[in-house]
Amino acid sequence: MRNGFATRSAAARGLALCDVCGLVAPVKAGRCPRCDSRLHLRLRDSLQRTWALTIAATILYFPANLLPVLRVNSVTGDYANTILGGVIQFWQHGDYPVAIIIFTASVMIPVLKIFSIVALCFAARSGHRPRRMTKLYRVTEFIGRWSMVDVFVVAILVAVVQLGSAMSIHPGAAALSFAGVVVLTMLAAMSFDPRLIWDAAAQQRTKQS
Amino acid sequence: MSSRREARGSGNTIRQLDNLLLYDQIRLLPLDLLCVSRRRGLTVPFVHPFATTHQLACPDCDILLELASLEIGEKAICPRCLATLQMHQRNALHRTAAFALAAAVLFLVANCFPFLTLRAGFRQSQMHLWQSAVSLEEDGSPYLAGAVSLFIELAPALLIGGLLYLVLPLLWDRRAPGAITICRAVVWARRWNMVEVFLLGVFVSLLKLGKLASLTVGISFWAFMALIFCLTAALASIHPRELWARLETAK
Prior knowledge:
- The structure holds 2 protein chains of 2 kinds.
- By secondary structure, chain A is mainly alpha-helical.
- Chain A contains 7 helices and 5 strands, in the order E-E-H-E-E-H-H-H-H-E-H-H.
- In chain A, strand 3 (70-74) and strand 4 (77-81) form a beta hairpin.
- The mean pLDDT of chain A is 87.
- Chain B has 2 domains: 2-88, no CATH class; 93-249.
- By secondary structure, chain B is α+β, with helices and mostly antiparallel strands.
- In chain B, strands 1-4-5 form a 3-stranded antiparallel β-sheet. In chain B, strands 7-6-8 form a 3-stranded antiparallel β-sheet.
- Chains A and B meet through helix 3, helix 4, helix 5, strand 5 and helix 6 of A and strand 2, strand 6, strand 7, helix 4 and helix 5 of B.
């Protein structure tokens, strides 16, 4: 156990993995000998950045769900739809698969993602169950982009439904904040360094023994 | 070398492997390859990029490992956190180049032809792929338009172009000028490329509008579906680490 890094880790030997090209080089060199990017043992201010981005995403999550995501102007009347409203509408019309897809992608995934990032941040301090937490990290990183579905649906509807005075669709205020939630959670997952979990786990083990 | 074979053959659990020496800590699994053709028509002069053992650290848990050269179809997995460390696929460069070329053509087709056509009564409106971003801009949401065009136009274009720029010269064992910058751009574009998410969005909107009006999909839609397949296959054919190793050994 040296400098708070796990014993068999590259960092404990002063070796850094280049973020860009994956070469293992001594961190003292400063820059990667292969691709000249800056070397560091762990992502800089990883937890601090992850917390900040997650909190920002949580704040944006409220307008994203409360404001209308779509505004429809048609001859039969104007109306606006929130994300949850759209899901309920689909459900009432009997379109269960679509309702489930939108509910999963737009409501469940962002919430679960925020929760799992918070769990990861705690795990990076406590070092509990490192293998499971690393898996959670990978799932979180993979799944994040799929919440963008609703934003793309808005973009497609706005582009395709251009029927002049008969019917037109416009993006609502929630569309942008929702895109913001997705981008911020993606950035939060990217700035999280899973190696911190293993460092904490090693620290925990030495404390116990 | 022999210890490596034993590690695979004896069916040790990962936990047991964890206690072995560093050299034995790689678990090897055969890869399910996309294409199992054994014909070797077009083989480039193959300089094995991993001819000697080399040091590597797991990107997810930072364990330091020593990895011997992998044989075709083998995959190195981190013994501690099960991350894929490296793969060696058959004809990795050729496959990446072929799929990336196909993706480039499909990307052009997807952008040049109508994507969706909506008919309601006498009225008709047609949508091109790029219009999904442009009409958002016209509607007064420039940020949203920027995000959408980044995710479905810029990032895939950069990804396909960058891959071709890197891989095509590598077929002749040459390194294109500025390869490092392009490689970084490819890594970045890979993160923000969301073509497959867009496709799910298309399906949802088809179902959403299906009852309202008659919607027909154009050539561009089919090209877009094929593009997703080719782009995924191109990225899966080569492991970034192998790409870097080849860029390093190329002239």
